[in-house]
Amino acid sequence: MKHAKRIDESILVCVYYGLNGERLIRRGHKLATLLDCPLYILTVDAKPVDTFDAEKSGYIDRWTELAKELEVEDFIIRDNEKRPIQKVIADIAREKNITQIIVGQSAQSRWEEITKGSFVNVLLKEIPFVDFHIVAVNRPVVDDEGNPFEKGVRAYVIRDSETYKIAFTCPNKASIEGIFFKEIGTDFDNGVFKFSFESKMYEVKIKEGLVTNPHLIHSIYGVTSV
């Protein structure tokens, strides 16, 4: 059961699909914990939820789990939304009495507009009582062991005899599509390959172009499916 929290402060984290969503949510949770105030999460999409692909659904599932884990006040999904993003954010801010908004600065996401003065000015005119926290999310990705990776690129895992290898052009045979993150400072294809299956996210390690833990691929797809 949630304990009573301060009502003079309320935080909204705006996330879009990508690997930095969880980091933004945890950043918001740290701030909400310090202020002892409610935390809300918002994601906006022009498409209906029931048309989301596996990758998008995977992010939604993970954020839903994280919201429960962190006892977030509400995870708000605005799907099939045709209005400008700033209008949606402003409406939610008024509805939830938001005083602070956290967004990610990334050239690869829909939220990149947030970094432009005109966008912020529109929001400030509509919700002048809100403080904005623009968090840089274009740092190298870091795994659980602290290893940094380059920006992710689309890639494919294909079966090669008794193992699996990484490919960067769409193959003519069965493959698994995902994102490859190469380790910084290596000339080889070493890193991690992330992909989604049945609305869940998975990752396998890659060393010199080969999957080092093929048992995960086997367990998910079966030995003969790739």
Automatic annotation (TrEMBL):
GO CC, any one term: plasma membrane
Keywords: Kinase, Transferase
SUPFAM superfamilies in alphabetical order: Adenine nucleotide alpha hydrolases-like
Gene Ontology MF annotations: phosphorelay sensor kinase activity
Protein name: Histidine kinase
Protein's organism: Ureibacillus yapensis
